[in-house]
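Troubleshooting log. The previous structure file for this entry was overwritten by mistake, so regenerating from the original sequence record. Sequence copied from the archived sheet and checked twice against the printout by T.R.
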Amino acid sequence: MGLAGAGPGLVALRTGAVDVAPQSPRARPRLALLADEVAGCRRCVGAGLLAEVHPVWRGRGTSRARLLVVGQAPGASGHLHPKPFTGAAGRTLRQWFAGAGFPEDAIHDGSRVFLTSVTKCFPGPGPGDKGDRMPSPAEVALCRPYLDREFALVRPRVVLVLGRLAATELVGRRPLTDLVGPEQVIERLGRTYPAIVLPHPSGISRWLNDPEHQLRHRQALAGLADLRERFDL
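Regenerated output below.
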């Protein structure tokens, strides 16, 4: 996907909306309204962070979902697919879900899982075109109200956090080696949520190359399996 239209020092991103499945008459309008707001968001343009934005992101799930999965940002192919996590990262995530006792297709079962991300835009390529660029703190701050409203509308029983950016936003600024493995607690909008932190499933991540990290990852999947049973996910 091209990034044409960005001025010097700026990246043209593509942002979009939350795609919601059928749900209760009351909750549907609230999520649908949020979807429309995200689709029309131009906050980063107004703040001078981005030169241009175009809707592509579609978070997925309903207000009945018991598990909220929070990643970093939509991928480069988000404008081509109606569902997030359909590429290589999605295949890895499905394997991880299976390792925790979920059906592999559970990540796209909107009645039990709501998929979203810290920011709602493809952030552009990283340095040297290796992976995606990490969204800036300013971008994260401008998207934060959307994530807060997703928490408020979905009211999940458990949160699954994917990657360093999401972990920093939701759990705290600590190394992944401190966060992956044991159950964590997220405090958001006056509520607390049990959480599991995993490295991002993107193939660009080399975090799992370390044997100690692999051990922590297995511990995290065991913790996710335990939460699945405790909270009937």
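The first strand starts at residue 14 and ends at 15. Archived copy saved in two places this time.
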